[in-house]
Design brief:
It is a single chain. This protein folds into two domains: 72 residues, no CATH class; 190 residues, Vaccinia Virus protein VP39 (Rossmann fold), CATH 3.40.50.150. 34% of the residues lie in helices and 21% in strands. The protein is built from eleven helices and twelve strands. A seven-stranded mixed β-sheet has the order 5-4-3-9-10-12-11, with helices on both faces. A three-stranded mixed β-sheet has the order 6-8-7. Helix 2 runs antiparallel to helix 3. The N and C termini lie far apart (43 Å).
């Protein structure tokens, strides 16, 4: 069971604050994260209680035992920095934005103030992670964020959900076809309509191998004039065959120009 369920959240302890004083001051240069990882692993040497701390101007409930959450705790300035810098430049007030595979809200809390009075749709299939996402949205009074606890696919279906191992919630997925629980999935256009979204100016989608089938169906379902201005998409080469197609080639075939991120497993796409 995740530490977030075992103990109430608290403020960072003295040891965490000492490490944060170092890691949060690291410059935004490629490779500096290796040094931060030493301190992250040192702090993670034993189970830790969840904490509430400041990230990108928001208060977030985070689990120090989880790999992705540790990045937000110790190095928010490095966390997906290329994609978040792209997001900050691309989003405008009044835009609608989709955060699919929102996890605990690392992109959502950045996007919501940028698009206000526009709206954000944050989607995550994992009920436990979704409960933390909801708390982070509510804690920051992000009234322009709509939340959807549902899986995304190219059709209505119910599939086994594989939860990542302890500390790796970010790799939970449907593509493995294994898992103790079954969850509902729907096409993106249907989920968007249920929450009052006719289109999105931008889409970030990170759903562990289902990106191709979701976006192929979505671009078929909505008129071309409603296609997003930009995408931030995870693309995992080892899952392309099982995914049913390559999301990069899909976007290129629809007229988008694809830029690879330094992280090598994400792309940014513009018309």
């Amino acid at each position: 069971m995740a530490a977030t369920q075992q103990a109430p959240a608290r403020e960072p302890d003295r040891e965490m604050r000492a490490y944060m004083a170092i890691t949060r001051r690291l410059p935004k240069v490629f490779g500096v994260g290796a040094f931060a990882n030493v301190l992250k692993r040192l702090y993670a040497r034993k189970p830790r209680a969840p904490v509430v701390c400041e990230v990108h101007g928001a208060r977030m409930l985070l689990d120090p035992n989880d790999e992705l959450d540790r990045e937000l705790i110790f190095t928010p300035q490095l966390y997906d920095r290329e994609m978040l810098d792209f997001l900050r430049a691309a989003l405008k007030p009044g835009d609608a934005f989709l955060d699919a595979g929102a996890h605990v809200g690392g992109f959502t809390v950045v996007a919501a103030p940028l698009v206000a009075p526009g709206r954000v749709l944050a989607v995550d299939a994992d009920p436990h992670v979704f409960s933390i996402l909801r708390r982070n949205v509510e804690m920051n009074k992000l009234s322009n964020v709509a939340l959807a606890n549902v899986g995304l696919s190219d059709k209505r279906e119910r599939l086994r959900f594989h939860r990542g191992d302890e500390g790796l919630r970010g790799v939970s997925n449907f593509i493995d076809g294994t898992g103790e629980s079954e969850l509902d999935l729907k096409p993106l256009a249907e989920v968007a309509a249920e929450h009052g979204f006719e289109s999105f100016a931008g889409v970030k989608i990170d759903i562990e191998g289902f990106e191709f089938r979701v976006l192929r169906r979505y671009l078929e379902d909505v008129p071309r004039e409603c296609w997003p201005r930009f995408f931030i998409v995870e693309r995992l080469p080892h899952l392309v065959e099982r995914a049913g197609g390559d999301v990069v080639e899909l976007l290129r075939s629809k007229g988008y120009e694809v830029r690879w991120s330094r992280a090598a497993d994400h792309v940014m796409a513009l018309p």
